[in-house]
Design brief:
Number of strands: 15
Distance between the termini: 29 Å
CATH class of the largest domain: Mainly Beta
Radius of gyration: 19 Å
Number of domains: 2
Largest sheet: 8 strands, antiparallel
Shape: globular
CATH architecture of the largest domain: Sandwich
Strand content: 25-35%
Number of helices: 7
CATH superfamily of the largest domain: q2cbj1_9rhob like domain
Length: 288
């Protein structure tokens, strides 16, 4: 498959990078909980249960997400839920920890230079919407990755390798400057959590020129998490693979026929009562 679909499955060993060096330089345990997930889960549930009011829910969704008082129209819909549905609605909890960082990668003196872009303490982040009810169009606020991770030498090597992949996929483009956004995500599950996914929105595109949809850094006591790529109007599965530690998928995204998702994870051994899947994701956007 590989390059002809502008999809590359890679292993960090091919870059001369041992996955342990990434684990040592990037801490996942200190990441902050992504509290957006609670309200996004509630909004998806509300849309499903009150579908006739979906337009109003979307109109009020940003206000609901911004931790202001619950909009009156949303509160009214919540009050109409049955008691069992209210229990589900209020039982949602955070299932991801995350941090974000950005870099400007520029071709200078015949080599790529990676420079960090300073971000505010809570970075505004939004993504392209694939349809009208796609909640990724809302502005979410993420904390930056910690300084040790941002300045990780191994992370910069990884970014340069991905830029080389991008140039290999686009030989006719004379690329000189590329914006790179890195997402550090820990997907966590315990014995009180239903299966959780890093793509709760389902099959989608991220809205960047190219992406690393996932590079798995570490995982423990989980099964599932199968990366799936589709093309041709989202109905043709062209790749299905469970990424192991050190493996990742680099592929074209925006304005392409390639769509992606990852299946939920669940506990492999329930008696251990917890599991996780730690990944890095990357968005690549042309500047010039």
């Amino acid at each position: 498959m590989g390059i002809k679909y502008k999809i590359i499955q890679f292993n960090t060993n091919e870059f001369g990078i041992n996955i342990k060096s990434i684990k040592d330089e990037l801490s996942f345990s200190t990441l902050a909980w992504d509290t957006n997930d609670i309200k996004l889960s509630q909004l998806r549930f509300l849309i499903n249960k009150c579908f006739a009011h979906r337009k109003m829910i979307m109109q009020e969704a940003q206000r609901y997400l911004d931790e202001s008082p619950v909009p009156d129209n949303i509160q009214t819909l919540i009050s109409t839920l049955s008691i069992p549905d209210k229990k589900i609605f209020y039982a949602f909890k955070s299932f991801r920890k995350r941090g974000i960082s950005q870099f400007c990668v520029e071709y200078i003196d015949n080599q790529w230079e990676v420079n960090h872009i300073d971000l505010p303490p809570l970075t505004h982040f939004t993504q392209h919407a694939d349809h009208k009810l796609d909640l990724r169009q809302l502005i979410r606020r993420f904390p930056p990755m910690d300084r040790a991770a941002i300045h990780s030498p191994t992370l910069k090597i990884l970014i340069k390798k991905f830029i080389e992949m991008l140039c290999e996929c686009e030989p006719k483009r004379d690329l000189k400057k590329i914006e790179v956004t890195c997402h550090q995500v820990s997907l966590i599950i315990d014995n009180t959590t239903h299966p959780v996914s890093n793509s709760p929105e389902g099959l989608h595109q991220d809205g960047s020129n190219y992406i690393v949809s996932a590079l798995v850094i570490d995982k423990y006591n989980i099964e599932g998490g199968i990366s799936k790529l589709y093309c041709t109007e989202k109905d043709r599965l062209i790749k299905s693979h469970t990424l192991e530690c050190g493996e990742g998928l680099f592929h074209i995204d925006k304005n392409s026929t390639i769509w992606h998702q990852v299946t939920p994870i669940k506990l492999k051994e329930p008696s251990i009562k917890m599991g996780y899947r730690n990944i890095l994701g990357f968005d690549f956007n042309y500047i010039s």
